[in-house]
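Problem: given the chain below (213 residues), write out its structure.
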Amino acid sequence: MSISIMESQICGRPLSECLRRIEEFHGFKAPGLVLGLFMVDLAQEKIGADVEADAIVETRYCLPDAIQVFTPCTIGNGWMKILDWDKFALSLYDRRKRHGCRVWFDLEKAKQFPNLYKWYMRLIPKKELPLDILLNIILSAGRSVLSWDAIYVTQYYQREKKGKTVICPICNEAYAADQGNNCSSCQGNGYYKLITNQKKTCSSIVFGNGKRK
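Solution.
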């Protein structure tokens, strides 16, 4: 990529900085997140810089991270909803008026970039399309593979509020009352089991080499 492209402004900052932030947050320059960067940039332009926006993302893969890195909307603050539809689309909308913009990866447009289309449709093995080549294709394509619509949000816009909290009589930890008389873990739905034959220090437990596979 040329220096001029790397210094072009995306989401209000140089592309080079955006890619650095993606790598820091996600662990590597994930192609879906880089594509999501252009999607967020387009949606922000269409709704306007002064709009206090919430977000809806239609996949749980990569795209939610683009929202979290380049907008104030996160899972933790409740300003982003994730719909597990496996559609590569996102919407930013005015949280008060509910008018906004939906942006999606347009497969018809992506056919201009055959390897990008094959990557998304899982028609080409990863070893035949190295990451650096794929990223260059995405950076070259930019917004040209995206489409957008003006929208009015009719559902999924409600902010979720925490319900009543009670203390579990078994583990003595606080939990959401709607789980029942005991917390989900003490009902047998926990995701872990206790290690009882070692000291309670992290340094005494072997976790492997600390690297992700």
